[in-house]
Amino acid sequence: MAETEQPQIYLITPPEFELSRFPDALARVLDSREIACVRLALAGQDEDRIARAADACRTVCHGRDVAIVIERHLQLALRHGLDGVHLDGARGIRDARKELGEDGIVGAYCGTSRHDGMNAGEAGADYVAFGPVGATALGDGSVAETDLFAWWSEMIELPVVAEGGLTSDLVRTLAPITDFFGIGSEIWAEEDPADALARLLSAAD
């Protein structure tokens, strides 16, 4: 569990990216260190664009034996051979589990709510994500406090992801009490995302 092992890395794609460039950048990051899972987190509702991104990122991930899930779009996950879906809260988890089967990955983002996390776990989620853990202009300003992760890691067996606004200091603080670090915007704006990832995680190494 998180108390005895270093957290695994869960990569989150940018909400917008150039399909001609991003798969190569993703490949370089996946080749730089062990990554547990990738979340395709494209914004918008352009089905064709998201489908093409899903195919390209799946090829990169599966070529390296890395699982890939997609935010929200269960049918695209099924149609394009992805490993699962990442949902907002507990809603839809039971249906997703039914569609994906026991081997599919079903995750849930639960913000800062312990209650929502427990509901997601009871509904059959494979993991819950809490965040943001650091300061961000997104959302309502709420932050998933360290105490939430400490309580969860002590009381709940379901794996937990810490994401949103990660810094080296937060990585150091949360490493003993989370199972995964969800890392996205922290690295993709950098010239060398793989190097940015290494610097961010050096606090936990």
Main sheet: strands, sense, barrel: 8 strands, parallel, barrel
Morphology call:
globular
The sequence of SSEs as H and E is EHEHEHEHEHEHEHEHH
Question: How helix-rich are the residues, as a percent range?
Answer: 25-40%
Q: What value does the average pLDDT take?
A: 94
Spatial gap, N to C terminus: 17 Å
Low-confidence stretches: none
Question: Would you kindly provide a brief summary of this structure?
Answer:
It contains 9 helices and 8 strands.
Topology record:
Elements: E1 8-12, H1 22-32, E2 37-40, H2 47-62, E3 67-71, H3 74-79, E4 84-88, H4 93-100, E5 105-109, H5 114-123, E6 127-130, H6 146-155, E7 160-163, H7 168-174, E8 180-183, H8 185-188, H9 193-201
Parallel strand pairs: 1-2, 1-8, 2-3, 3-4, 4-5, 5-6, 6-7, 7-8
Helix pairs in contact: 1-2, 1-9
Key structural traits:
205 residues, alpha/beta, eight-stranded parallel β-barrel, globular
Overall description:
- With 205 residues, this protein is an alpha/beta fold.
- It is 40% helix and 18% strand.
- The protein contains 9 helices and 8 strands.
- The protein is globular, with a radius of gyration of 16 Å.
- This is Thiamine phosphate synthase.
- Pathway: Cofactor biosynthesis; thiamine diphosphate biosynthesis.
